Amino acid sequence: MKKTILIDELCVGMTLSRVVESSTKLQVKSQGAIKSQKTIDNLKNRGVVSVEVIVNEAVESVRTDADAKNTAVASSVNKRENQSNKVRSYDQQQKDLAAADKLYTQARTVHNRFLKQLRSGHAPNFDELSNATQDIIDSVFDNREALSCLVMLKESDESLAQESLNCSILMSMFAVHLDMSQSDIEDLTLAGLLMDIGMALLPEDILHADYSSLSEADINVYKTHVEIGLELVERYSDLPPLVEEVIAHHHERIDGTGYPKGETELSIPVQMASIVDTYNTMISKGQNKLAANSQQALEQMHDMSSFDSPLIDKFVEAIGLYPVGTLVQLRSGKLALVVQSNPSSQLHPKVIAFYHIKNKHYIPIKIIDLKRSSDKISFAVRPEEFNINLPKFFRTAVIPG
């Protein structure tokens, strides 16, 4: 059953069907559950007076018992925080990785559809994208390293949708680690998905070229993706100011070497976005270059004057020195995949050894807790150095069938 209510009656947990009355021409493009107070506040700020909701007994219960709702929300937050801090067994980690892999695939499909709508000139579905970001946040709270693993295990195409999704995940992890407000976490997760949205309308030859190989004229065209992105979000949606700020300034740098304006006074969220964007670019394989491994990328960024070193340190804390999904070479001469971090000692994660470098052959898979082993990590490596299809190995050897 559907029912029209005033915007002040709308509560978290209700299912929104459509906007009935608004001082603007705002339209809800798809039905969806109200997952946060931020969504309600955004509707109010955009002039919504009344809405139509899909009513059921659970919704009526939420409406008539605000105290029960607040208790449930507090319990959910506490549960998520406890889950986030809990050390999991390897079996549970495998299950979490499988769930994260499914979510990652779904979110990438949503973003691909969003980009296709943009390129065809149709109004893109921001509501669907916003729901995807909420799923990302929930997953990060549940087990942040499970979803971050998928960032490291990049597919060969490295499409705009994949890179945007990776930035969104990293932004969510970063914001959660800095203990930012729920609304800021939501805004920054969405900003990660959208900060390079303007690239969707760049010429294909520029979009897919290695940046270092572009001519000066092509670079100038490339840089227009910032203003294109701002124009797109202003045309199709009324996003929170923080999201637009990140889109406008995430290529700026504190030493003035960024673009489009060479600004140096940058907010913490913008600096976070610039760190995430640069890190993700460095570990991505362009047309004519090899990707840096995570260790190399973090070390190089720490030495750059473009970034605030203490904030880089916080980013390292957020994702880990050896993020889950990192390929490492052990002192024993084996290759191993990091599958679980060790909060008490980032140098000693849990890994799966599967390849002998000297003998150049695969070995029986062995789980090694480096905290309890004499074997240690020598350094991180890139899978292409050994012609290893890491995403395929991950899905066949790590995720339970």
Detailed description of the structure:
The protein is an alpha+beta fold and 401 residues long. The chain folds into three domains: 2-75, no CATH class; 89-319, Orthogonal Bundle (Hypothetical protein af1432); 327-398, no CATH class. The chain is built from 15 helices and nine strands. Strands 8-7-6-5-9 form a five-stranded antiparallel beta sheet. The protein has a four-stranded antiparallel beta sheet with strand order 1-4-2-3, with helices on one face. Strand 5 and strand 6 (334-340) form a beta hairpin. Helix 10 (225-236) packs antiparallel against helix 11 (241-249) and helix 12 crosses helix 13. The two termini are 40 Å apart. The model is unreliable at 57-85 (pLDDT under 50).
Return the CATH topology of the largest domain: Hypothetical protein af1432
Give the CATH H-level superfamily of the largest domain.
Hypothetical protein af1432
Q: What is the name of the CATH class of the largest domain?
A: Mainly Alpha
* H/E element sequence: EEEHEHHHHHHHHHHHHHEEEEEH
What number is the mean pLDDT? 83
List low-pLDDT spans: 57-85
Amino-to-carboxy terminus distance: 40 Å
Largest sheet: 5 strands, antiparallel
Quaternary organisation of the protein chains: single chain
Tally of individual domains? 3
Overall outline: globular
The share of residues in helices is: 40-55%
Q: What's the Cα radius of gyration?
A: 22 Å
Query: Strand percentage, roughly?
Result: 5-15%
The class by helix and strand makeup works out as alpha+beta
What is the tally of helical segments? Answer: 15
